[in-house]
Specification:
Elements: E1 10-14, E2 24-27, E3 38-41, E4 43-46, E5 52-58, E6 65-70, H1 80-83, H2 86-91, E7 93-97, H3 116-129, E8 151-155, H4 161-164, H5 173-180, H6 186-193, E9 198-204, H7 212-218, E10 224-230, H8 237-240, H9 242-258
Parallel strand pairs: 6-7, 8-9, 9-10
Antiparallel strand pairs: 1-6, 2-3, 4-5, 5-7
């Protein structure tokens, strides 16, 4: 049983489940979701503070479960190419969700709703709804022990926004909280540097947004680290090199499972 994650730009997580594809639901406009309306396949789960988080599952629940977590400015639909790929669907059970402040999830505008613990609770709510176990991301490891996870997959990613990116705050208040909220990668980095957590770090050879070496410098000392640079891949490696990305991730997951992680 594993938990694999791709963080800041994206995140993947592997776990244990028993469920099936979600039904199609109608999303009604509310002030909390900026009056968004849509018809989507998925479900709403309620986080501990009452924030509604939109999530979706696809694939065979008997397969190793993987949770996909997008980064800033994106949404769960960023993973459409993966979720519509029959090979991915046949190999793993996939769950994705819109993080708070993004997509179809609620967008709270008070500072208390953006405490780091709240995002960990969002993930917990998704994991509990799909009956998953062992999870991870920087926020989550601030509030759970290292054995809450099994491994991490970073795709052009860094532990938190403060490490590499400095951006001006957009106009929407919710977006300002996304960018400026306090984060701590201490729990995550301690787990990696103590050898308790495996990490697959994927980079695109032609990525113009995230630089490989500065990103690796942030996680310096990570003991169980595998680095993969995909040739001719841009920032969104799973789109620019879908077959190579899929092969790299699934092979790494298979190796982790063989090791009993």
């Amino acid at each position: 049983m594993l938990t694999f994650l791709k963080a800041l730009p994206l995140a993947i997580v592997l776990l244990t489940v028993s469920s099936s594809d979600d039904p199609q639901i109608i999303i009604k406009p509310t002030p909390a979701n900026f009056n968004m309306s849509a018809r989507s396949t998925g479900r709403f789960v309620t986080s501990q503070d009452g924030t509604r988080i939109f999530a979706e599952a696809r694939g065979d629940a008997s397969k190793p479960p993987v949770v996909f977590i997008h980064g800033f400015g994106l949404g769960a639909t960023a993973f459409d190419e993966i979720f519509n790929d029959p090979i991915w669907v046949s190999q793993v059970y996939m769950i994705r969700y819109d993080t708070r402040g993004h997509g179809r999830s609620d967008k709270p505008t008070d500072a208390a709703s953006w405490a780091s613990e709240r995002l960990a609770q969002d993930f917990d709510a998704v994991a509990q709804s799909y009956q998953l176990s062992r999870t991870h991301i920087a926020d989550i490891l601030s509030f759970h022990p290292a054995d809450y996870l099994s491994g991490i997959i970073y795709d052009a990613a860094i532990p938190d926004m403060a490490d590499l990116l400095t951006v001006s705050s957009p106009r929407r208040l919710a977006t300002q909280f996304v960018l400026n909220r306090t984060q701590s990668a201490t729990g995550l980095l301690n787990a990696g540097r103590s050898g308790q957590l495996s990490l697959l770090a994927i980079f695109g050879e032609e990525d113009k947004l995230v630089q490989k070496q500065p990103a690796l410098d942030v996680i310096k000392g990570w003991k169980k680290l595998t680095v993969a640079t995909l040739p001719k891949a841009e920032h969104f490696t799973w789109i620019s090199q879908p077959v190579l990305f899929r092969t790299t991730v699934l092979q790494w997951i298979s190796e982790q499972l063989k090791q009993g992680i």
